[in-house]
Automatic annotation (TrEMBL):
InterPro entries: Acyl_CoA_acyltransferase, C-N_Hydrolase, C-N_Hydrolase_sf, GNAT_dom. Gene3D superfamilies: 3.40.630.30, Carbon-nitrogen hydrolase. This is Amidohydrolase/ribosomal protein S18 acetylase RimI-like enzyme. Pfam families: Acetyltransf_1, CN_hydrolase. It comes from the Bacteria. Residues 228-483 form the CN hydrolase domain.
């Protein structure tokens, strides 16, 4: 079976540490970002940052071009107190005061090229700092933030009053609003903080983010991990008149999931059959083939949404034509611009009869920034061996986009998904569509409810249901899964089926393992 044509090139977002050769480009971005003379760091400052604390200096590369950066230093904050200036805390920009044994990461700047602000570059840099803070087991992050709109209100408000009005959303300030939206808490106003910042009248806000995973030195061996937040869509299969309508509906779901700060959003199986509602085709296989003709538009849409909203998207499944054969394929669009896919492995008789869908031959377990995942499309979740093989290969979360014609179809998915979660000590996420399209084959009726299941043990909900929607209504269902709790119960839960499972002569070798690793799409 040949690979899907994924030759469309998408620019990739890469977050990495700043290197010496990056400095001229970073300086250029910094000056464009501030737009204020003599505020941005100079090349000699960045050279010092890289020499003294290289792991604390990040940049964002998009399509091979640096579009954002940030600098940080570790300090013992008690040595500076709450009346410090920017020159004090940055050692006049050279960070020779960096203290590896300090308790806080201090964020010195975040700069973003003005032409790329819609890609949430600042948010990505803040997340890189948070990850560094957790990795180094620091107490938190402290920043002195500009308040660039204050000069417009200085005649009527003190700096403190202005900040409180911004926090209450009565006034908009791009920096303060961004920082509070990213989990920082206002502590006080710092007067005379940054020379040259006339828009802020030299004032700054002292902000703090507390590392909830910080462990005092006596307990450093205790492991912590962050939850993975997942939104699963109950997609309304309503009639549309163009691909643009489809894109608008999908972006609505993705945009709102991004507001929830979800790590993943999951769409249902055969989601692009909604396109058949405006295609002039009555024959079932022709409807599927015409939907498949939108593969390029589909891939561009979800790749762009993953980048724009900084979220990993499992874009349901889509029919793809290869060598005159039709396959059902689920695509994973990562928020860093990379992509992967999983073919449906078991084809129900109705799908084969009406559309001529062919089965895939490979079960993948995909590495993501949020752990290892597998995608079992619809009918595949009803075959226990697939989930077992996926978990044997390291899967922590199984995503199941599905479509159900009636309640019986839905309940088969529902009970099998719950069983797979218990049998394999794995999280299972289902996503189903709702609504109906009377003249589109296999979508003339829908029964859907999206759900997130866990194993059943003390660390999880008593019934193993983390989140679920209401049946047959358009909705976004959001929940969090704890991978560290999963690791612990696999080792020492009330029951430990992964440890206790006997092979009875069955091999763990995956029948769906590719022989040629070169088939994997390039990153």
């Amino acid at each position: 079976m040949s690979e899907t044509d994924t030759s469309i090139k998408h620019k990739q977002i890469v977050i990495r540490n700043i290197r010496q050769k990056d400095i001229p480009e970073v300086v250029k971005v910094a000056n464009l970002s501030f737009g204020i003379p003599d505020v941005a760091f100079e090349p000699e400052h960045y050279e010092s940052h890289i020499r003294i604390f290289p792991e604390g200096q990040f940049c964002v590369e998009y399509g091979g071009k640096i579009v954002g950066a940030c600098s940080s230093v570790i300090v013992n904050f008690a040595e500076y107190g709450e009346e410090h200036t920017f020159d004090d805390i940055s050692d006049d920009g050279y960070i020779r005061n960096h203290n590896p044994k300090g308790g806080h990461l201090y964020g010195l700047d975040v700069v973003v090229h003005p032409d790329y602000r819609k890609l949430k570059i600042g948010r990505r840099l803040y997340e890189a700092r948070r990850q560094l803070c957790r990795r180094l087991n620091l107490k938190g992050i402290i920043i002195g933030g500009r308040m660039p709109n204050y000069h417009q209100y200085a005649h009527e408000l003190t700096p403190e009053q202005y900040v409180h009005e911004v926090i209450k959303k009565k006034i908009y300030d791009p920096v303060i609003t961004f920082q509070t939206m990213n989990g920082f808490t206002f502590k006080k106003v710092l007067p005379n903080y940054l020379t040259g910042d006339e828009a802020s009248l030299k004032n700054a806000t002292l902000m703090e983010w507390i590392n909830e995973d910080y462990v005092p030195s006596s307990d450093k061996d205790y492991r912590h991990s962050l939850p993975v937040r997942i939104t699963t869509v109950q997609h309304d299969m309503k009639k549309i008149s163009s691909f643009s309508d489809f894109a608008t509906q999908c972006e609505h779901y993705v945009r709102n999931s991004s507001k929830f700060r979800s790590d993943f959003i999951v769409f249902p199986e055969a989601v692009t059959m909604q396109l058949a509602s405006f295609l002039e085709e009555r024959f079932p296989s022709g409807q599927a083939q015409k939907a498949a003709s939108y593969t390029n538009e589909y891939m561009n849409l979800f790749s762009d949404l993953a980048l724009k909203y900084s979220i990993n998207i499992i874009a349901g499944s889509h029919y793809v034509q290869e060598n005159n054969e039709l396959y059902s394929v689920a695509f994973l669009f990562n928020r860093d611009g990379t992509m992967d896919k999983q073919y449906k492995l078991h084809i129900p008789s109705e799908e084969e009869k009406w559309f001529g869908i062919q089965p895939g031959t490979e079960l993948k377990v995909l590495d993501t920034e949020c752990g290892k995942i597998a995608i079992l499309i619809g009918y595949d979740i009803q075959f226990p061996e697939l989930a077992r093989l996926a978990v044997d290969k390291g899967a922590q979360i199984i995503f199941t986009p599905f479509t159900a014609e009636n309640e019986h179809d839905f309940l088969r998915i529902h009970y099998c998904a719950r069983a797979r979660a218990v049998e394999n000590q794995v999280f299972v996420v289902t996503s189903g569509s709702v609504g109906h399209l009377s003249h589109v084959t296999l979508t003339d009726s829908r029964y859907g409810r999206s759900e997130i299941f866990s194993p059943i043990d003390f660390s999880f909900p008593g019934d193993g249901v983390i989140a679920k929607g209401h049946s047959n209504v358009e909705a976004l269902v959001t929940g969090e899964v704890e991978l560290e709790a999963l690791r612990r119960i696999r080792l020492a839960g009330s029951v430990t089926p992964l440890k206790d499972r006997r092979q009875y002569g069955f091999s763990k070798v995956n029948a769906f393992t590719p022989h040629d690793e070169s088939e994997r799409p390039s990153e």
